[in-house]
Every structure is written in structure tokens, then in C-alpha cells.
Amino acid sequence: MKKITLKVNGKKTKHELDPEEPLLYVLREEFKLSGAKYGCGLHQCGACMVLVDDQAEPTCMNSCEYFEGKDIETIEHLSQNNKLHAVQKAFFEAQAAQCGYCLNGMLISAVALLRNIPQPNRLQIKDALQQVICRCGTHVRFIRAVENAIAQKE
Known about the structure:
CATH superfamily of the largest domain: Beta-grasp domain
InterPro entries: 2Fe-2S-bd, 2Fe-2S-bd_dom_sf, 2Fe-2S_ferredoxin-like_sf, 2Fe-2S_ferredoxin-type, Beta-grasp_dom_sf, Diverse_Oxidoreductases
Pfam family, one: Fer2
Strand order of the largest sheet: 2-1-5-3-4
Number of helices: 5
CATH class of the largest domain: Alpha Beta
Oligomer: single chain
Radius of gyration: 15 Å
Keywords: 2Fe-2S, Iron, Iron-sulfur, Metal-binding
Strand content: 5-15%
Low-confidence stretches: none
Domain 2Fe-2S ferredoxin-type: 2-78
Largest sheet: 5 strands, mixed
Mean pLDDT: 95
Protein name: (2Fe-2S)-binding protein
């Protein structure tokens, strides 16, 4: 066990943790944040994504120690003052979620994309979202939702 300092959703906290414990488990158990989901456990499905220094990163395999000193933001932090984030609103309006299991990864990936490339083209949107597996086949609606979020910002 080791004292690990993590900055999650703007707050720095110290926890006595196994430094090899995956961040996903720490978020769910220590922080009681359940937005990131366990999917494949192999960094392949995207269900466990969080924003790390404004980049979408999986959390199911990387140790919590790896994330020390980084700014971690979860899906729970996207909405502020009871107001949905623009991307969340666009996904809702486009009815872009079906079963919802991949939704965390899709939203996190879309937000990361728009923070790094404010006006991405369709190919860049597809590339950003392809790191998340959706078994329901709603990728077309996800792409449309991201395009709608961009249009709302203009």
C-alpha cells in the first residue's frame, strides 16, 4: 500500500492504495463514481474512458499510480450547475444512446476531440469515436450528435 494523490474532477485527494490497482476500480470504489464502466478489461472497448489532461484514456488496466499528477475528469463532472455539457445535450437530442453501455466512452471521446480540435471534420470525428465499441450499431447517431454539438457552438 502507498499514499497516492489523485486529482479527480478538480479535487486533489490522497488515498492509501495498492499502486498497481487500476484507476477504474479506484474511481468506482474510493470516489463512488460509476460513470466509467468495466467492459473488456483490455483497453479495447472504451467503456472505462475518462479525460486525462483533456485526452480520452482507458482506465481498466493502467495503475492508479500512473495517473498521479494528472488532471482526471469523469463523465460525472461534465454537467455543471444542473446543466448538461453541450456534447451530452447533443447526444440526448440526437437520441444517440441505445443500451447506454458505450455512452461513457463515446461522450468522453467526443469531449476530448472537441477540446483539442474545436472544428473537427467528419473523418476526425469518426477516428476519435472508433476507439469505443458500440454493439448496438448507433455510430451514425453518435457522429451526427458530435456534428450537432459543433454547430451549436458556432
